[in-house]
Amino acid sequence: MTSVVWFRRDLRLNDHPALTAAVDAGGDVYPVFVLDPALLEGRWASANRTAFLLETLRCLDAGLRDRGSRLHVRTGDPRLVIPSLAAQLGATGVFVSRDYAPYGRARDLRVRADLESAAIRFHEVHGGLVVGPGDLVPAGAVPPHSYSQFKKRWDAIPLRVPHSRPAHIRTPGVLDAGALPSAGPRRLELPAAGEAAAQMRLAHFLDSPVASYGSERDMLGLETATSRISQDLRFGLLSPVEVVTRARAHGPLAEKFVAEVAWRDFYAHQLWHNPRLLREPMDIRFQQFPWRFDAADFAAWCEGRTGYPLVDAAMRQLAATGLMHNRARMVAASFLVKHLLIDWRIGEQFFMRRLVDGDPASNNGGWRWTAGCGAGAQPFFRIFSPILQGKRFDPGGEYVRRWLPALRDVPAEFVHAPWEMPEQLQVRTHCLVGRDYPAPIVDHREARQRALDAFAMLKRASISPNQDF
User: Which of 65, 94, 101, 176 could form a disulfide with 4 if both were Cys (CB 3.0 to 4.6 A apart)?
Assistant: First the structure.
């Protein structure tokens, strides 16, 4: 018996149900990864993610070699590569972790059909989420549209026991393993790649920070307050089932962190049931929203030159690291959509092209949440004040000073609204607004009212303009 294990977004050996199933089936096992130009060069292409991916694949290959195997790398359309490779090997089965995104589902349907026409079984196993869509609601049933309803059902489903990694994988050396391309020169310092590094990050987080995660996760100046494993879940360097299992062992204090992992499942389930969400708002009334596009405003947002320190620091962090703190993501996204009235899908694409942890479902869900046009979304009329958000979650200004050197000497009193500094203080702190740091490109109150007026055009039954948050 010969099996192919087709790795995609499950680049690990520990708790890998598809790999375990292939090894348990007996016989030879050929691990394969296909570099798909449609993903590496397509709509969501990201040099940052590609660099991290290639380093991770090298780590995966090293782990496989330690177990008597190797990673076989191919480049091309997997709809052609996988059936051809399976036939070449005389494989009886191809094992994969189920893909929940629209492109992956369509691809896998084609691969399944071609394999089964050649009498080769296509084994799909849940491995990328804590709970798969089919395990939460029966086929044809209406999925929960609110996160709270989803989480209640999600919590009620018993977790499977994580699998241990195979001690040995029998892979005869009859096939050219192929080679990984160079990632090219790095523009930024990415997180350490590979499963071992991901396990170290998880262990460090569970060793202490998880206990204070619920109270400190939004504090932008605390670098150790978050898990830093978002890219590890995105590429499957960590099993989400293992992550939740180990977190829950720490008791109630870890439940806020577990709830954040559940959001990841929630967005994946929403996209599974509603693939159109990658193109359209869930609330179709938003198709008539009077978006505007000002190229200068958009460029200022992209480059961290809006004049609002929290927004600018967030965008500078993204440019420098390929990552962004979650609270900062919400504020930066809200500013684009509500202060500048730029279509959320433009911001969604910008993030996807730069985020190392960019995930189609989570990124799409986050932007729909911000714009108020998706499941579990905040109301459009809830408009974040970048000033109040900064004072609340970066009271000392450590976060904005880290990414905006021009504000290094600005007192905490003014660090989130430097234009309010008296001119003498601007001179003394070497931060002349309009020269050393940009003046705001929009007035918060005016932009907020403009957003509310635009929202009113949707003719909702009731609109209750909210206070700043």
Answer: 94
